[in-house]
Amino acid sequence: MMPFKELVLASHNAGKLKELQAMLGDAVRVRSVGEFSDVEPEETGLSFIENAILKARNAARVSGLPALADDSGLAVDHLGGAPGIYSARYADGQGDAANNAKLLDVLKDVPDAERGAQFVCALALVRHAEDPLPIICEGLWHGRILHAPRGEQGFGYDPLFWVPERDRSSAELTPTDKNQLSHRARAMALLKARLGI
Ligand SMILES: O=c1nc[nH]c2c1ncn2[C@H]1C[C@H](O)[C@@H](COP(=O)(O)OP(=O)(O)OP(=O)(O)O)O1
Ligand SMILES: [Mg+2]
């Protein structure tokens, strides 16, 4: 049973918000933290989990509502898991296009066999800002980094992420398909099971 009627999504990323909303469906009334504050908390954690908790607590504090945060990123095998928790800041805050250009450049001489990568998602749900027992769910999505961008859907690193089970890039998947396969979808399935929704 859903323990509350309303939930704030602790993300300022439009792409993520859309996906999370679609996955939650009408199980709960969803607000976005942007309705309450434009200030993004600094992501000072050393793990996806710590950053997700920190963002969830911040959103619960500014909204007075239970909050769900997503901290996610791309971990590239050849780079020892980088950019990882620093994925959004990979090109020093210049945005998705610059992040993607930097990744392609760093991997330009790396052969296909060594281009394995996974998207990682940690979801954190807190009932209130000081919740001593956040619910944490994780999801991974294995793929490979392309040599050039493909596709227009999605956001972030999607155009560079090859999805072997579909023979397409993540940015070539329909939103419905991505929302059934992705790291975020896997974490959300666990969260829904945990909440009984
Ligand atoms: O499905 C995805 N498809 C493509 N790229 C993705 C995906 N999921 C995460 N990513 C990338 C985007 C960003 O470079 C980083 C997340 O960084 P992250 O700090 O969690 O999110 P964010 O700063 O964009 O928004 P916010 O912190 O307000 O939720 O990983
Ligand atoms: Mg962020």
Automatic annotation (TrEMBL):
Cofactor(s) listed in the protein's UniProt record? Mg(2+)
Purpose: Pyrophosphatase that catalyzes the hydrolysis of nucleoside triphosphates to their monophosphate derivatives, with a high preference for the non-canonical purine nucleotides XTP (xanthosine triphosphate), dITP (deoxyinosine triphosphate) and ITP. Seems to function as a house-cleaning enzyme that removes non-canonical purine nucleotides from the nucleotide pool, thus preventing their incorporation into DNA/RNA and avoiding chromosomal lesions.
**What are the coiled-coil residue ranges?**
none
Identify the keywords attached in UniProt to this record, alphabetized.
Hydrolase, Magnesium, Metal-binding, Nucleotide metabolism, Nucleotide-binding
Where along the chain is substrate bound?
S11, H12, N13, A14, G15, K16, S72, F155, G156, Y157, D158, K178, H183, R184
- How does this chain assemble? Homodimer.
Residues that bind Mg(2+): E42, D71
Q: Which SUPFAM superfamilies match?
A: ITPase-like (SSF52972)
Active site positions, chain numbering: D71 (proton acceptor)
Substrates-to-products reaction catalysed: dITP + H2O = dIMP + diphosphate + H(+); XTP + H2O = XMP + diphosphate + H(+); ITP + H2O = IMP + diphosphate + H(+)
Q: What name has this protein been given in UniProt?
A: dITP/XTP pyrophosphatase
Could you say which EC number(s) this protein's record lists?
Answer: 3.6.1.66
How many cofactors are bound and how? Binds 1 Mg(2+) ion per subunit.
Task: Report the PANTHER family cross-referenced here.
Answer: INOSINE TRIPHOSPHATE PYROPHOSPHATASE (PTHR11067:SF9), INOSINE TRIPHOSPHATE PYROPHOSPHATASE/HAM1 PROTEIN (PTHR11067)
Query: Which family is annotated?
Result: Belongs to the HAM1 NTPase family.
